[in-house]
Amino acid sequence: MSSLLKIDDLVVEHRTPGRPVVRAVAGASLEVRAGEVVGLVGESGCGKSTLARAVVGLNRAASGSISFEGTPVTPLGLRRRTMTGVQMVFQDPYASLNPRRRVGDQIADGLRVAGDATSSPADLLERVGLPREFASRHPHEFSGGQRQRIAIARALAARPRLLIGDEPISALDASAQSQVATLMRDLAVSSGAGLLFISHDLSVVRLIADRIAVMYLGRIVEVGDTAEVWAEPRHPYTQALLGAIPKPDGMGVLPAELPGDVPDPADPPQGCRFHPRCPLVMDVCRVKEPEFGPVACWLHEPS
Ligand SMILES: Nc1ncnc2c1ncn2[C@@H]1O[C@H](COP(=O)(O)OP(=O)(O)OP(=O)(O)O)[C@@H](O)[C@H]1O
């Protein structure tokens, strides 16, 4: 599979006057290949949205690089390409659709972007599992799950090569969540596009992602094939997320609850950022950040 999106050592900072700088993405590296689904997971506030927004140019990169189909796009991100190559589906389908415009007209915008004169908005609605006649109606007539399908139809109309879902299911009813996630996966993969799917719902990510990237306090701490990471999570944080921390003596499993809260990204711990909460912490972890992959942990230092 060829590389579609490549993020290297990306740093993104939020600056608010009178407040310390928040380094929300602190040297993250990640790749999405054409035709694959990458699930990005991690606790609230770890920087997932900031990373996604940097990719589409809504947040500016302070350093590091982002390239799309081999072309560097940093520091402005993909904004100039967003209209054709990349589409993002946001968390809140109530906010992302224009309440005053008919659904069909909003989908038609995407078709125009792609220069697609053969498909109709009704065709796109059909592809996302909605009746063709919805095209003449307005967003307020629909449920959250239906609106998110409409937002997906609008994104797909532009024929993106990369689709990004930033928590696209977390505002939906439980019954709609896995359906919408699976739909995004099927539609992206069948058109040969890549999908970067951000979610804190691990069971859904497990269902749809080929690979999984685990983010902690601005960094990707583990990346791997979804089935392998589930079978054998290696970073203690991934183990905690999946509820399977082996005890240091190898006997049994610690409870999934991690001590303490996520540290403040404006003042991250020295050394490994996870060390204050890590049940397997060693001396080196307190002084030196593990800057290697695919498992950024001193227990898994490449030889
Ligand atoms: N516009 C902003 N100004 C200042 N700080 C921000 C801004 N946006 C995000 N942050 C901070 O950056 C950090 C990362 O936030 P981000 O929203 O990227 O995380 P996330 O993993 O997507 O979390 P969530 O799942 O809650 O959206 C958090 O500490 C957050 O408070």
TrEMBL record:
CDD domains, alphabetized: ABC_NikE_OppD_transporters (cd03257)
Official protein name in the record: ABC transporter ATP-binding protein
Domain ABC transporter: start-end pairs: 5-242
Pfam families named in the record: ABC_tran, oligo_HPY
Entry's transmembrane regions: none
Organism (species): Nonomuraea ferruginea
SUPFAM superfamilies named in the record: P-loop containing nucleoside triphosphate hydrolases
Family: Belongs to the ABC transporter superfamily.
InterPro entries, A to Z: AAA+_ATPase, ABC_transp_ATP-bind, ABC_transporter-like_ATP-bd, ABC_transporter-like_CS, Oligopep_ABC_C, P-loop_NTPase
Gene3D superfamilies referenced in this protein's UniProt entry, alphabetically: P-loop containing nucleotide triphosphate hydrolases
Keywords on record: ATP-binding, Nucleotide-binding, Transport
One function term, GO molecular function aspect: ATP binding
